[in-house]
Amino acid sequence: MSNFYVKVVVLASNGRLPGGDGLAAFTITEVAVTLTVATLVIIYFSRLVKNFIIKTKPPPLPPGPPGLPILGHLLFIKPDFLQYVTKQSKIHGPIIKLQLGRKVYVIISSPSIAKQILKDHDAIFANRDVPAAAVTGTYGGLDILWRPNGPGLHKLRKLVVREIMSKEGLDACYEFRRREIRHTVKNILGKIGLPINLSEQIFLTMLSVTISMLWGGSLNGEEAKLGLEFKDRVEVFVGLFGEPNVSDIFPVLKPLDLQGIESKTKKHMSWFYGFFESVIEQRTKLGEGPKMAGSKDFLQQLLELNQRGDAKTSISIKEIKALLLDMIIGSTDTTSTTMEWAMTELLRHPNKLRRVTEELDAIIGDQTSVEESHLPRLAYLEAVLKETFRIHPPAPLLFPHMSSETTIVAGYTIPKNSNIFFNVWAIQRDAEFWEDPLRFEPERFLKDTEKRNYTGNCFHFFPFGSGRRICVGIPLAEKIMMQILATLLHCFEWELPNGRKPDVKEKLQLVLSKAEPLVVVPIINCDGALDVKNGKADVGVICRDCTGMVLDGATERVIADEAEVVEAMTVTKGVEFAVKNIWENVLLETDSLIVFSKIKKKMILIESGN
Ligand code: HEM
């Protein structure tokens, strides 16, 4: 018997020696074994429980910079939120967390994590945290942008995608788009040689295009002032949505509206909605608006749905107004900013600009205007637009998505109701995927075109978002931007005032625009200038690109565009014109109808007065 065994037996038998009581010795052995087994079982189970606890403990929140008590990172996000989050992501990794008050903000700057959220967990992350300004500005989120994910959102998205953005919908209102682009050309022709704010010009074109598609209206002529007012108000309105609002961060302060954001939003909202109400009232009084190839404009369709009274498809007047505002805001700032950046980059890279104009000359040739049918063949221009989206995405962080459940992503816990930003600006400039990412190189989109598209499947390049909140306006955006850019570049040459180089400083409001608007000088892109003398004073008719514009030679102001040539010549009836074609020396009488073609570089006489 070992010493140890003797000791245990003696202790267990209260000092009595074994042998006298065999039963006691047996019990002690049994107790020892039982104790050992119990200890082992306890150890085993405690390990099991520990493992279970470790396994079921939620992963940590994403890392991030330390914040201040109560305020969190509120004081750090200004003046440049995009630069701040990009810098913090470089330090803390591709998924980071910031806190404003009690609200959690998660910023993603990795394609694979973006894919997990926007594809694998799309339904969970398809909500929005509606800021107080948007609640006020959209009747509590009745539009598409701020609407919670659900049947109401699907109904509105389907309506826009099927009725406006479908091929048939867009074809049906092509004439309106064409008309507005020609008005823009005419406007610019009146400003040849003068500096113009291109951003403003393009914004007005886009606004006119959108309004004409929505209800057949136009902002040209007398209404141009209205266009500028729209522009100012859209800018302010959008700025109010983007402004960090203490009412959102600390909801108890909401009734105080400390920054006055809600009251300002209300003021602008009443202006927009008042405008829409007058359009709707007019439509209801006068009946259907202008028809486009037998189809109805969007407003007409909405009003008919409003009359239907069927809960599944019916739409209220408030929804109609909120939707119209969405379409106008969604389509103007984003597209005009993109075109402004595209022009800026082309002016900075004359060799790329040359390649665009060569392509335009080859495809459009001597035809008088850029038509939508030309667009699919303008591969290089399309690459220029994509490269512009890559380097200057108008929505560099997309629009924030909100999680409707606590979810684990990339090994971190994203709490319910967090706001998720996707830093497409950083992802699309990431040297791991894009060679020489800061260089403007449209050629990279000429290879691998299928892979490098923005339909939401490539998470290295997704300027329109992805998943169920992807932008509804892509088909319109791509058509209209291609056509406007092609027209501007085919019809005019562009210079910077005083030979300056355009700068690329950015400014983030809701869209990432140029800090300073692009001011450029349009010059005549045609050698075929014609002089007209009436014997008393110089009067000019100058051949202008594509459009057959008639201009006053002294002031270089437009007298008429092609459609109005007849009228212009009637106005000048009785005045003797001697029109000298620099190639053919043609003399015309006043009553002649003339159009000019740029490419043929000659004046075409289509009808003689006598
Ligand atoms: C350069 C052109 C455009 C760009 C870059 C752009 C970009 C975007 C982005 C990034 C989003 C948010 C996606 C997300 O939340 O993940 C969005 C949403 C939206 N866009 Fe666009 N957009 C453009 C043009 C347009 C046009 C032309 C329209 C309409 C006429 C439009 C209407 C909308 C609407 C209504 C939404 C909200 C969708 C939703 O929340 O479900 N956009 N857009």
TrEMBL record:
Heme binds at C471. It holds the Pfam family p450. The chain crosses the membrane at residues 23-45. InterPro entries: Cyt_P450, Cyt_P450_CS, Cyt_P450_E_grp-I, Cyt_P450_sf, RNase_H-like_dom_plant, RNaseH_domain, RNaseH_sf. Keywords: Heme, Iron, Membrane, Metal-binding, Monooxygenase, Oxidoreductase, Transmembrane, Transmembrane helix. Belongs to the cytochrome P450 family. This is RNase H type-1 domain-containing protein.
